[in-house]
Amino acid sequence: MARPTRWETDTDEDHSTWYVERFRNLAAEGADLEGEARLIDAMVPRRSRLLDAGCGPGRTAAALVRRGHEVVGVDADPVLIEAAEADHPGPRYLVADLAELDLAALGEPEPFAAAVLAGNVLAFVAPDTEADVLRRTMAHVADDGFVVAGFHVAKLPLDRFEAAVAAAGLAEEHRFATWDLRAWHDDADFVVAVLRRP
Asked: pLDDT value at position 186?
């Protein structure tokens, strides 16, 4: 049985609804909400099959579809998936726990060229499941594919992330301080890491 995620235990009861409305308001204000999608789009061939793991209300998945990719978005929160389906049609959205992810059982057996965990996804999974999430996400990616994870270091300490990467049997190929690839430095408050199989 899936353990409760930090999204469930560390936030207010109506946090999901607040989160949906926050991004609807940002979109209405014209905020740039596609930085993650631009990076992934630049890293994969045209018309790639992509996994948005922890897709939330669907902004990144939809932006990748607009760039011509086939996208499956997965999130454990049905409120966020419902909002994704309403606001950002195009991707296929599924409710599933990333720590136990089995997309073949949900009708998606084909591997992905890459997967993205944006929006502090790793910081909100159930405690001590970060390695499981990385392992299960990478299990759905083709042999030459990759996973990109982004998160605030205040929410997920670097040492815990590095331990999870190692425990998942992955290697950190690149580390940046932002989604627009500014160089990593020790005072950076955000991490964007490209992970591959060794």
From this structure: 95
